């Protein structure tokens, strides 16, 4: 252990702080909410962290729900375990084999996580595709075939009408025998609304009845859990089962949501469940979080077919602590998951990527201006969406709307289906819409987006004037853009699994396609102007509208999530468009800059704050000049700090103190008069140890003295035996002085993942600062409600 002296913390020299951090991070788990045992006090030397008892009691060293783990204790336990295995491996062959299996267990776990997540993602993709098509009709050859596979098997399909075949019949044909006319249209319309309501109703009922944690995206909670927070059941087997089923139902219902974000939650559930097969991950919360970081990468890998982007997503967006070992294992797990998904081939195109594109024209430097314009649009849309969605979710939490989640889901589903069906671009699923918008028109393409006038007799792909079909498509896309922007605001956050990647990309892709077609027509009619002269001659194929859709999709997703590097990599893995990295980078960076001008929080950080989770955002800077004494508790008018003395208190007095307070731990001092700090003991460990001693240790009664000293003090002959609890006490809790600047204190909390920090003056205990105190102080400084921070 490394000891940080109070003198060092008082020095404002950055060199002192830097040296301290380097020493700490070399041997201490530098991540989230743990209690660090790194500050020296009262001349105590470094104490070995016990396990926490020589004969560990069940429950000691574990954590209550909605609490933060002790990172340093977990890491120390793992080091002690590893040291013991290494020492034993030198003594026998069996122990050596055990050591090898222990080292290999992490890679085996990654293999299992990749296989399980890839298999589940493949099943979700296939099921969602089939159930989405069921809203439109059924395949007579076999009801289990979706529309595309049904018509693949038909010999009567034409190229121009490849989506129509006798084997696939709409609900109007099945019920009335007619495929055309107003009655058939109304029948199909009603069946579309019926299936949308049915799927959404089943989704919300299953979530409400069996797994309330299965709703939403899951990424805000995953980020909080990876920072050290405990949410029991959030990654459990019931959550996995219900989330997998209801994700298919929610996506198939036609709601404006995606399955990509929830797949990260599904992969983390798989990882958490599989961790129980391996002792070192089952019994160690810090080690388990390393696996969950890798699982987040697996989730994005199977969602988009982007294994490298998944690893970068986990590193940039989700993980709080990401050592090199976790990077390698994330890469391996993402590779296995991508291979598994490719073997299942859910898209039926023998490709791993979701939206494969093949553009024929390279981009020109002049086009950077519209790409940056798309970045500005994406940033504005992202900032607007976050503010609107958070306002709507806050309204849901604070009004009666939140008491009726089933009705809310059904109303939104009915409204979505009612408005979406008349427009072919809102009727199709989000993935289909994006694929259509990314598509580069060929000569024989029957899509309305390719409704150009044919002006040349040769089979060239030159820029052409827009025809009536394209103008109709543009009007429909403009209406779809407004609809998607508005309906996504109220959909994200409902009590069904809901991802944000696909709806955000759809908004950007629509805007990009509209701008791309506009640029294409501008180039066609003004090819002699200064802007286009020299690189876009008449009859040339200069502008690719699909590329603009791709750039717009990246810009809007970046504006909402504030992703940068991982987003660009995901986009070129997603589309295969490797040569378009520069336009993607320009739009993504512009989007982030514009969105950050209105607020530095992405959508996931905003939802973390809305839910009151104790998450110290590493990107947020502390810009105030307050000191530790200004933030610590107790304040000047508060009651004195609840403490334990190292000797002199009875079991009954300790139990009364614990029952009369709700604190998660208590400082231990020499005496009530001196207030000289000795250590820190956790509430849970204290209660478990006392309860166990009453049951198993003879003579322990309420009058028994509780002793935290190394040697038992002399007691009267008729006194009951004392209860020695030094073994559960942390002898080196992290301390700062009362004049330590809060910006340094906040930085220490972030870098070391502290849960609490004791404040002293010349070795005398003054108070305590918890992560919750820091978050409340930061909220107060930012003119936000400090009581919105609910957990510690």
UniProtKB/TrEMBL annotation:
Lineage: Eukaryota, Metazoa, Chordata, Craniata, Vertebrata
Gene Ontology molecular functions: voltage-gated chloride channel activity
SUPFAM superfamilies xref list: CBS-domain pair, Clc chloride channel
Transmembrane stretches, start-end: 106-124, 189-214, 235-257, 263-279, 291-315, 365-386, 401-421, 473-494, 500-519
Cited SMART domains: CBS (SM00116)
Coiled coil (UniProt feature): none
InterPro entries given in the database record: CBS_dom, CBS_dom_sf, Cl-channel_core, ClC
GO CC annotation, single: Golgi apparatus
Full protein name: Chloride channel protein
Keywords associated with the record: CBS domain, Chloride, Endosome, Ion transport, Membrane, Transmembrane, Transmembrane helix, Transport
Protein family per UniProt: Belongs to the chloride channel (TC 2.A.49) family.
């Amino acid at each position: 252990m490394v000891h940080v002296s109070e003198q060092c913390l008082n020095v404002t020299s950055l060199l002192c702080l830097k040296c301290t951090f380097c020493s700490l991070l070399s041997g201490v788990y530098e991540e989230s909410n743990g209690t660090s045992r790194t500050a020296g006090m009262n001349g105590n030397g470094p104490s070995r962290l016990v396990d926490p008892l020589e004969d560990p009691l069940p429950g000691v060293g574990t954590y209550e729900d909605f609490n933060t783990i002790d990172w340093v204790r977990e890491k120390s336990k793992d080091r002690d375990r590893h040291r013991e295995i290494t020492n034993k491996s030198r003594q026998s062959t069996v122990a050596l084999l055990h050591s090898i299996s222990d080292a290999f267990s992490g890679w085996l776990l990654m293999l299992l996580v990749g296989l399980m997540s890839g298999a589940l993602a493949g099943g979700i993709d296939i099921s969602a595709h089939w159930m989405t098509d069921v809203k439109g009709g059924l395949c007579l050859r076999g009801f289990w075939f979706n529309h595309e596979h049904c018509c693949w098997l038909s010999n009567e399909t034409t190229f121009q009408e490849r989506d129509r075949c006798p084997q696939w019949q709409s609900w109007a044909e099945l019920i009335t025998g007619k495929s055309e006319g107003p009655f058939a249209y109304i029948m199909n319309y009603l069946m579309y609304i019926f299936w949308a309501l049915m799927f959404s109703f089943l989704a919300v009922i299953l979530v409400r009845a069996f797994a309330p944690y299965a709703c939403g995206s899951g990424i805000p909670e995953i980020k909080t859990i990876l920072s050290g927070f405990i949410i029991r059941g959030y990654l459990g087997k019931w959550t996995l089962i219900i989330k997998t089923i209801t994700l298919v139902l929610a996506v198939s219902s036609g709601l404006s949501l995606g399955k990509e974000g929830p797949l990260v939650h599904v992969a983390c559930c798989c990882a958490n469940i599989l961790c129980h097969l391996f002792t070192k991950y089952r019994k160690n919360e810090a080690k388990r979080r390393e696996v969950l970081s890798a699982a987040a990468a697996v989730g994005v890998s199977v969602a988009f077919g982007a294994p490298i982007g998944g690893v970068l997503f986990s590193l940039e967006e989700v993980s709080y602590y990401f050592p090199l070992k976790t990077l390698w294992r994330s890469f391996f797990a993402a590779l296995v998951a991508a291979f598994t998904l490719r073997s299942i081939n859910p898209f039926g195109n023998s490709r791993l990527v979701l939206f494969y594109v093949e553009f024929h024209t390279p981009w020109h430097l002049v086009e950077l201006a519209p790409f940056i314009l798309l970045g500005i649009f994406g940033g504005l849309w992202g900032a607007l969406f976050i503010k609107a969605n958070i306002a709507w979710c806050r309204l849901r939490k604070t009004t009666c709307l939140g008491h009726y989640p089933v009705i809310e889901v059904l109303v939104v589903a009915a409204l979505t289906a009612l408005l979406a069906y008349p427009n072919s671009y809102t009727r199709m699923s989000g993935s289909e819409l994006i694929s259509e918008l990314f598509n580069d028109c060929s000569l024989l393409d029957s899509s309305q987006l390719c409704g150009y006038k044919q002006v040349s007799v040769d089979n060239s792909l030159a820029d052409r004037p827009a025809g009536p079909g394209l103008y109709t498509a543009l009007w429909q896309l403009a209406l779809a853009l407004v609809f998607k922007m508005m309906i996504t605001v109220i959909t994200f956050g409902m009590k069904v699994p809901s991802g944000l990647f696909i709806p955000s990309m759809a908004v950007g892709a629509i805007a990009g396609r509209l701008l791309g077609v506009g640029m294409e027509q501008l180039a066609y009619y003004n090819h002699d102007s200064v802007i286009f002269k020299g690189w876009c001659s008449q009859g040339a194929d200069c502008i690719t509208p699909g590329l603009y859709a791709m750039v717009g999709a990246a810009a809007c997703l970046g504006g909402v999530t504030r992703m940068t590097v991982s987003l660009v990599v995901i986009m070129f893995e997603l589309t295969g468009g490797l040569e378009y990295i520069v336009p993607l980078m320009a739009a993504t960076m512009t989007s982030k800059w514009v969105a950050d001008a209105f607020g530095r929080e992405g959508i996931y950080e905003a939802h973390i704050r809305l839910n009151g989770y104790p998450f110290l955002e590493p990107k947020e800077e502390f810009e105030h000049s307050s000191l530790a004494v200004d933030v610590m508790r107790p304040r000047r008018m508060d009651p004195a700090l609840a403490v334990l003395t190292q000797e002199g208190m009875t079991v009954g007095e300790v139990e009364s103190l614990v029952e009369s307070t709700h604190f998660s731990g208590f400082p231990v001092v020499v005496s009530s008069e001196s207030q000289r700090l000795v250590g820190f003991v956790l509430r849970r460990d204290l209660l478990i140890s006392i309860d166990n001693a009453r049951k198993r240790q003879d003579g322990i009664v309420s009058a028994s003295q509780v002793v935290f000293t190394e040697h038992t003090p002399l007691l009267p002959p008729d006194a009951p035996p004392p209860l020695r609890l030094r073994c559960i006490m942390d002898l080196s809790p992290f301390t700062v002085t009362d004049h330590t600047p809060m910006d340094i204190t906040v930085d220490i909390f972030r870098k070391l993942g502290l849960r609490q920090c004791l404040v002293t003056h010349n070795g005398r205990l003054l108070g305590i600062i918890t992560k919750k105190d820091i978050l409340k102080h930061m909220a107060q400084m930012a003119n936000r409600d400090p009581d919105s921070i609910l957990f510690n």
